[in-house]
Design brief:
Two copies of one chain form a homodimer. Chain A folds into two domains: about 45 residues, Homeodomain-like (Arc Repressor Mutant, subunit A); about 150 residues, Tetracycline Repressor, domain 2 (Orthogonal Bundle), CATH 1.10.357. Chain A has 15 helices and no strands. The first copy, chain A, is flat. The mean pLDDT of chain A is about 95. At the A-B interface, helix 9, helix 10, helix 11, helix 13 and helix 14 of A face helix 9, helix 10, helix 11, helix 13 and helix 14 of B. The structure holds a DNA duplex (30 and 30 nucleotides).
Chain lengths: ~210, ~210
DNA sequence: TGTATAGATCTACACTGTAGAGGTGACTTC
DNA sequence: GAAGTCACCTCTACAGTGTAGATCTATACA
């Protein structure tokens, strides 16, 4: 069973490499060198490069397991998982992008989803809607954290004034009208919390009146 | 000004290549061959490979402009943009992934965001919250469409019964409890519409009582 | 001691992006 | 017309990529 250990060692090294020098620096050669081994020595363990990246996705999801196992009221468990996912993105910004790019249904992934299902059910979401709402929430969380680490949010925020100046008057009327708030620097932590709160407003508005199930 | 034409021709060819054979098939050599030209001939027009991909993001966003310019009540305009973005993903599944991966603040991108800002303001979202709510909605839409085209949603859906069978009893209790609904095949169009509706429930719940601004 | 077996290695190949130097044609200016 | 300018394209070359295929090596068991 040392073979599985070897694979986790390889994935740990790959993740460290991605954290330090970005995903594009994760080459079979660089990874092998870091492990003091020949590139071809990796293949029996990870299959090929694609298998390596799939393995990385697993490695990342495994880091969410503790958060999936937390106790407490369902709303808090949901938020804990959301925060854990975002924290994961900040720990591993380069590799995190793989989560939206590569589908994964490993046992660990199923366990995390199961925790979300359970929390939503307890919150009173009807059975028929639980899978959809789970996808809604996890899609948002993944998208938010991905946008953050990929710079999608920050990009629009470098000198918003100059950005508006490129346009003629009334070409982007809403930007003009919102000029004052657009010049403020957002607090991304607070924004994420506000988004989570809003999602709970939604759950409350739609199913808050009903008895929690089970 | 034929130079700009040449660039759009290159981007059109790159997009077609991505649609036909995937993003990884978009190599400088393949692209050049499709245009009947040498690889190095592309460089003056797009800078480098990264510039080419940035250009592709632009090309994609430009396809959203018509949807951003639609008339009608603000809720309908918002939904139209959401649907247009998802339709864009289905037209260009490979290239669409770039939207979450590469930040972009081109004029066209700003115009699309401006349409969203305007609609949210009209719906009664207070100025201070408009940018955040815009990010919430666009993040969800991008994430949903990306998940769809990348197979993240579908992956969990191939034989859900076999997936559950991997676990011992009570290891994934929520999956067991939801077995019946998990075996149903989702209608992704309907799910997306339900998600959009839910987001409007949220807007209504939080700011529906107020007078729409302007 | 001999043999099986799982793993690492070495070599080689087709493919990637792109630097650098050299053409080639059409337009402008005398 | 001739000469010059300039934008565009081509050719060659190089370092780096994933990985197929054959070979070596060390450990475990008989």
């Amino acid at each position: 069973m040392t073979s599985a250990d070897r694979k986790t060692a390889i994935l740990d090294a790959a993740l460290a490499l991605a954290d330090e020098r970005g995903l594009t620096a994760v080459t079979m050669r660089a990874l092998a060198q870091r492990l003091g081994v020949t590139p071809m020595a990796l293949y029996p363990h990870v299959g090929d490069k694609d298998g390596l990246l799939d393995g990385l996705v697993d490695r990342l999801l495994a880091e969410l397991l503790p958060a999936a196992a937390t106790e407490g009221p369902p709303a808090e468990r949901l938020k804990a998982l959301g925060r854990a996912s975002r924290a994961l993105a900040q720990r591993h910004p380069s590799a995190y992008a793989l989560l939206l790019a590569r589908p994964s249904v490993t046992p660990d992934a199923v366990r995390v989803v199961d925790a979300l299902y359970g929390a939503l059910s307890e919150l009173g979401v009807p059975d028929a809607e639980v899978p959809r709402v789970e996808r809604l929430i996890s899609t948002f969380v993944l998208g938010y954290a991905t946008s953050e680490v990929n710079g999608r949010f920050a990009a629009g925020r470098v000198n918003p004034r100059a950005q508006r100046a490129q346009f003629g008057p009334d070409e982007v009327p809403a930007h003009r009208a919102l000029a004052e708030v657009l010049d403020r620097v957002p607090d991304w932590d607070a924004e994420f919390e506000a988004d989570l709160d809003d999602l709970f407003v939604l759950l409350q508005a739609r199913w808050g009146g009903q008895r929690p199930r089970s």
